[in-house]
């Protein structure tokens, strides 16, 4: 691989970092910047040609990781100050991804089975966010506190979450970070690396080893998920394409509900962030603009994806 190609893949891999924004599909971005096929080929080739695949994936991976860290830092900081504005942007991006998903099933149209699958996917995704909010409001279950205590079952949860997130990233139109968000894990994961606060790893050194362990397990889940998804999702899409995308469309639609109703939208005082004390009335006008901007921005990305094919 020439230096020019290596740095080109590094730059294209950096674009995948946008997938850390809930609602932005890393798969879709990968298609637009023309690195998707190379990424999938490299992952699927790890078993037969390990070192060759590693050399292919290395610049893409480095670019993706560095860009992801920057994106996550910016999201973390802005979410603290204006959660409703950020969520509205995320929701707009998510809604804008639905037309791309629908393109995969529009030839079959709507029927009783497709509607039932979409409703099932919607209910599951919406319920995850709503239940996480209820668990904090009425059961005092706070995932941020759980991440600080780091019980044994959290490691299993993060592995499974990483696995599911990786699978979601493989399918163009689905945002892996959106999966983490509706599971209520997005903000707690960001908080693990907080630079300030009493529970920061820089102020509380007892958290350093647990954070390293949790990060390793999450990364392992993502890696295993990518390897499994490169063949599993290909089989599902080839043999059960309509059923798969009907469920996905419902799930993505329901995730919009979970974005507005989950633990992250409840302040520590158990007050919704929609309270006038936290979100001023004028902010809702900006939120509406960001939602629409996110929607059309994702549609533009979708258009670029179609042009790439």
Describe this structure in words.
There is one protein chain. The chain has 13 helices and no strands. It is an all-alpha fold and 309 residues long. The protein has a domain at 82-296. Helix 3 (36-44) crosses helix 11 and helix 5 runs antiparallel to helix 12.
Defining traits:
309 residues; mainly alpha
Calculate Rg over CA atoms.
Answer: 19 Å
Tell me the number of strands.
Answer: 0
User: How confident overall, as mean pLDDT?
Assistant: 81
Number of helices: 13
Task: Please summarize what this structure is.
The protein is mainly α.
Record the SSE blueprint.
Layout lengths: L2 H13 L10 H7 L3 H9 L5 H32 L1 H20 L9 H28 L3 H7 L2 H19 L5 H7 L3 H7 L15 H32 L1 H20 L20 H28 L1
Helix pairs in contact: 1-4, 2-13, 3-4, 3-11, 4-5, 5-12, 5-13, 6-12, 7-10, 8-9, 8-11, 11-12
């Amino acid at each position: 691989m020439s230096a020019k190609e290596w740095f080109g893949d590094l730059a294209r891999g950096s674009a995948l970092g946008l997938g850390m924004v809930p609602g932005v599909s890393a798969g879709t971005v990968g298609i637009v910047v023309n690195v998707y096929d190379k990424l999938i080929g490299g992952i699927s080739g790890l078993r037969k040609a390990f070192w060759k695949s590693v050399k292919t994936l290395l610049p893409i991976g480095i670019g993706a990781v560095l860009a992801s860290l920057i994106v996550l830092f910016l999201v973390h900081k802005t979410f603290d100050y204006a959660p409703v504005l950020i969520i509205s942007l995320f929701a707009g991006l998510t809604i804008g991804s639905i037309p791309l998903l629908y393109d995969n099933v529009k030839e079959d149209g709507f029927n009783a089975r497709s509607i039932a699958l979409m409703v099932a996917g919607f209910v599951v995704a919406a319920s995850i966010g709503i239940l996480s909010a209820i668990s904090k409001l009425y059961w005092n279950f706070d995932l941020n506190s759980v991440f600080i205590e780091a019980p044994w079952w959290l490691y299993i949860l993060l592995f499974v979450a990483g696995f599911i997130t990786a699978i979601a990233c493989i399918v163009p139109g689905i945002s892996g970070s959106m999966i983490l968000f509706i599971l209520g894990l997005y903000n707690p994961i960001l908080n693990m690396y907080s630079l300030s606060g009493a529970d920061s790893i820089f102020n509380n050194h007892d958290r350093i080893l647990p954070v390293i362990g949790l990060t390793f397990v999450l990364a392992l889940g993502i890696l295993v998920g990518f390897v499994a998804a490169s063949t599993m999702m290909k089989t599902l899409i080839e043999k059960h394409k309509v059923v798969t995308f009907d469920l996905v469309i419902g799930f993505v639609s329901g995730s919009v509900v979970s974005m507005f109703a989950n633990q992250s939208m409840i302040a520590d005082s158990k007050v919704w962030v929609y309270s006038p004390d936290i979100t001023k009335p004028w902010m809702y006008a900006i939120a509406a603009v960001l939602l629409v901007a996110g929607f059309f921005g994702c549609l533009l990305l979708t258009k670029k994806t179609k042009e790439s094919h």
